[in-house]
Specification:
Elements lengths: L6 H10 L2 H6 L5 E3 L2 E4 L11 E4 L4 E4 L5 E2 L1 H9 L3 H12 L21 H18 L4 H9 L4 H6 L3 E3 L5 H6 L3 H9 L3 E3 L6 E3 L4 E7 L5 E8 L7 E3 L15 H7 L5 E5 L2 H9 L5 E3 L7 H10 L2 E7 L2 H14 L8 E7 L5 H20 L1 E2 H12 L5 H15 L5 H15 L3 H10 L1 H7 L5 E2 L8 E2 L50 H11 L19 H15 L5 H7 L4 H10 L10 H30 L4 H12 L2 H9 L2
Parallel strand pairs: 12-13, 12-14, 14-15
Antiparallel strand pairs: 1-2, 2-3, 3-4, 4-5, 6-9, 7-8, 9-10, 10-11, 15-16, 17-18
Helix pairs in contact: 1-22, 3-4, 11-14, 12-13, 15-16, 16-17, 16-18, 20-21, 20-24, 22-23, 24-25, 24-26
Subunit structure: Monomer. Interacts with DnaB.
Keywords: DNA replication, DNA-binding, DNA-directed RNA polymerase, Magnesium, Metal-binding, Nucleotidyltransferase, Primosome, Transcription, Transferase, Zinc, Zinc-finger
Cofactor: Zn(2+)
Length: 649
Amino acid sequence: MAGLIPQSFIDDLLNRSDIVEVVGSRIQLKKAGKNYTARCPFHNEKTPSFSVSPDKQFYYCFGCGAGGNALGFVMDHDNLDFPQAVEDLARRAGMEVPREEGGRAQKRQPVDSPLYPLLDAAGEYYRQALKSHPTRKAAVEYLKGRGLSGVIARDFGLGFAPPGWDNLMKHLGGDALQQKAMIDAGLLIENADNGKRYDRFRDRVMFPIRDSRGRVIAFGGRVLGDDKPKYLNSPETPVFHKGQELYGLYEARKANRDLDEIMVVEGYMDVIALAQQGLRNAVATLGTATSEEHLKRLFRIVPHVLFCFDGDMAGRKAAWRALEATLPNLQDGRRARFLFLPDGEDPDSLVRAEGTDAFRARINQQAQPLADYFFQQLSEEADPRSLEGKAHLATLAAPLIEKIPGANLRTLMRQRLSELTGLNGQALQEMSQSSPRQESASQDEGYYFDTSEPEATYYEPHTPSEGTERSGKKEWKKGGKKDGKKDWKSGRKGDGAPRGPRTPATVEPPALTTLRTLLHHPELAQKVEDASHFAAEDDTYAQLLVALLGTLQKNPKLRTLQLIARWHGTDQGRLLRALAEKEWLISADNLEQQFFDTITTLAARQRERSLELLLRKARQGELSAEEKDQLRNLLNRSSSTATSTSTGA
């Protein structure tokens, strides 16, 4: 299985794979016009919002935003890596996957990283050590003292790292190559000064961290002695990115495939103690704050999230960070609640002290809806009993409310803010649009996607309002790159409600418009004579546009899904996939003109930048002969010439 999968094979495989057959073999589809619908397999829903288009060979869920081609569906639905999904589709199509060594093709992950079996073997060693190692007594007593049964210890794969510097290394580490792999997996540490290697985890209770497929990807260790830190996590590795993983998520889904709500707590033992008491829906972040990536992942699985934190200052700060991460993910129909525990208590101690029924009753009686917690916290900072406090409250709350994509919830939150401050809706909207914080956020509108994990979520920029035909025309929000930075950052989904005219700051970047048009009409690439005159544009969209044009000019017969497959697994591929999921509704009469108008705009912008740089350099010193020629050409070149060059007219 070694080697790269040739891109030509992937193109051919997608051509031979019918997404209706691929999806229909896994979930029940129903014909609805020219498309097929179903209840989404990626989130709980009662009304089907999952659509499969045989024309586009794409699927899309209007509820959770999941979407992609046949390969993407197999990866997400079957929890497969890219090469495994290719193998699966190839078997279905009766094709054999070829492999090629080296070459300039983009490297893809092997079917399984060699770190997985190594981490699994380490997990097995720790489990056996908990059962039989001579020094296991302290670990066993610690777990019994926390009230854990053998069943829970088994379900969570708990183990024991014995004291000593090289127990695991002696058990698993054969030659230097094997030890190097153990370092890569975060199991060993190499001393930079003397080159000596030793076990990372020593004299600790071990908590294996599993991915969505149940594979061990890392460990957490709780010290039994006085060493520091009390809890130690594996470092970042090729298979473990702590900002993207949630401890206990695999176990929670395994225990209940029909989860309705997931509880986010602060530590390993909180998750396990709750599971011991029958509450098997808890997860914990791995030493990081709750992030938007975490929330995107959770809301793809369940519609409701409950945050359960200590009631101290640290817990309150963690809760507010969680709230800020939740806001951009609050589609209508999703819910977040906050439960704060008494001082000195955590979920582990409290559930053991008062029992499951009392803990459930505490959740039902004391958990605050997000909106209540939101206004309570801000009202403590900006007292709405004074005019100054009202003004401050509006300044704090309005930009945050604008981050909420759910139209109904956002409207209700605005109404509540209006009641507290006395400001009308128009004043609050103007305030949110004019604040620096909102301007930054507004420029991140448009298509949004999660770049943090394989099962990334993709959103259309404007979902249809109630009663609108989903296959019909839609209004599209404008958006663009955030702060001009070269990142492809995930953001908020469309709000589903038509908006009025926006300020110039929210106009969609021309390159993004052209990317979308080119994806749906790749034949236009052949009419562009030269894209190099804006190749230096300091804009990620423009850079991708240049690459897309070059690819299409070399391979004129490529279809949309084949183009996307060429960038599969990259941030650019995620953007292309999101753009392709919805038709770009330009009038056929104006499509070509708008396309080349955009290219002309990009060319003119780059020409102006080059001219400005050369003039600035000329003022500072002598230009080279080549630079003088370039400056002369730029000064003489007219915009009409640029248009002619762009269109090849």
